[in-house]
Here is the input.
Amino acid sequence: MRIGELAEQAGTSARALRYYEQQGLLSARRTSNGYREYDEEDLRLVREIRALLEIGFNLEDTRPFVECIREGHSSGAECPGSVEVLTRRLAEIDDYIVRLRRIRATIVKELG
Amino acid sequence: MRIGELAEQAGTSARALRYYEQQGLLSARRTSNGYREYDEEDLRLVREIRALLEIGFNLEDTRPFVECIREGHSSGAECPGSVEVLTRRLAEIDDYIVRLRRIRATIVKELG
DNA sequence: GCTGGCGTTGACGCTGGTGGCAAGGTTTAC
DNA sequence: GTAAACCTTGCCACCAGCGTCAACGCCAGC
Here is the structure.
């Protein structure tokens, strides 16, 4: 499939896909006319990237997951690098929730 | 006091103070040589701004608080505009905490 | 052969809150 | 008198993840 269709299937934009490629997260065969050509695995890759972005990871964080899938694993979370990113993010979320609770208490006090 | 001292007292930078002025949050008398001159009320104002920024408000959100203090209130949170901002932020925080909990559960599942 | 809808690269814009620098003027200390 | 440390305005840089436009190529349908 070409970039427009991949974008639509993955719920993103062609611009974003070119950006991912520029960041080394995605690669594409080229047809004779220079168009990028993608397959189903690319679609899985992009969906993984989007899912991670949606839960607050940045693009760099998705790299281990992408590499994991590229190495043949069915889930991007199966590799040590991915586990490390997930673990780190979990700790960040916990810290953040604590911080938000403190801020919430401050605001409630202000409003009280 | 001049901008450097105000910055130090308020725990920020002269650059930030000039930016607040540019955004209409701060105003300064000028001495004959063109230097900005501040007083204790300005210090209170800037401390209020910094405190709000630190708990996740953006500069625009601090405006009602600044105006509230300028109108003579001892606390910037006493005016309706400030209360509205606080209330809105409270709702945002609650939504965000819920969202973070969901993401946390997702990550735990991935790790499990 | 022409229009419209794809694709390509390259480059600039955006958001927010500064940091940093240039190129000057002022004040303070020795 | 001179050096350091302040101040002024103005402008570019930055972070991320794109959006958007320019200027062009490719291809299908009529």
